[in-house]
From TrEMBL:
PANTHER family membership: SUCCINATE DEHYDROGENASE CYTOCHROME B560 SUBUNIT (PTHR10978), SUCCINATE DEHYDROGENASE CYTOCHROME B560 SUBUNIT, MITOCHONDRIAL (PTHR10978:SF5)
Naturally occurring in which organism (per UniProt): Tepidicaulis marinus
Name listed for the protein in its UniProt record: Succinate dehydrogenase cytochrome b556 subunit
Membrane-spanning segments: 67-86, 107-131
Family of this protein: Belongs to the cytochrome b560 family.
Length: 134
C-alpha cells in the first residue's frame, strides 16, 4: 500500500485537455438532440390531444404552432429528428463493424451535419409548397 491513496492512482484526464474533434461534438449533439426529441414529443402529444378535443383546443395549438416562435421550434424539432436519425444510421453502420477508417468516420460525421441541414430545408420547402405558400 502506498502512503496516500492519490499517490497510487492515476489522475483522470479532464475534458479540457482533449482536442475537440468533430466526432466528439457529434456525440454530444446526438445526446442533445435525443433530449430535445423527448420534449418535442410533448408538442406532438399536445397536437394530438388538441385535435381530439375539438376545434377550440386545436385553434389554440394552431395559433402557437403557426406563430414565428412556433415555427422556429418546429423547425428545430425537424432538424433534431433528422440529425438524430442520421446519427443513428451512422451508429448502425458501426454496429455492423463497418466504417471505422478514420477518413470515413470523419466523412460520415460531416455527412450527418450537412445531410441533416439539407434534409430539414428540403422537408420545409416541400411542406410550404404543399400548403401553397411558395
Amino acid at each position: 500500500m502506498a502512503d496516500s491513496p492519490s499517490a497510487s492512482r492515476p489522475l483522470s484526464p479532464h475534458l479540457g485537455i482533449y482536442r475537440k474533434m468533430l466526432t466528439m461534438m457529434m456525440s454530444i449533439v446526438h445526446r442533445i438532440t435525443g433530449a430535445a426529441l423527448y420534449f418535442g414529443t410533448l408538442l406532438l402529444a399536445w397536437w394530438l390531444i388538441a385535435a381530439a378535443s375539438g376545434a377550440e383546443a386545436y385553434d389554440v395549438f394552431s395559433a402557437h404552432a403557426g406563430s414565428w416562435y412556433g415555427r422556429i421550434v418546429l423547425f428545430g424539432y425537424t432538424w433534431a429528428l433528422i440529425h438524430h436519425m442520421l446519427g443513428g444510421l451512422r451508429h448502425l453502420v458501426w454496429d455492423m463493424g463497418k466504417g471505422f477508417d478514420l477518413r470515413l468516420v470523419e466523412w460520415m460525421a460531416r455527412g450527418t451535419v450537412a445531410g441533416s441541414v439539407i434534409l430539414t430545408v428540403v422537408v420545409w420547402v416541400i411542406a410550404y409548397q404543399m400548403m401553397g405558400a411558395l
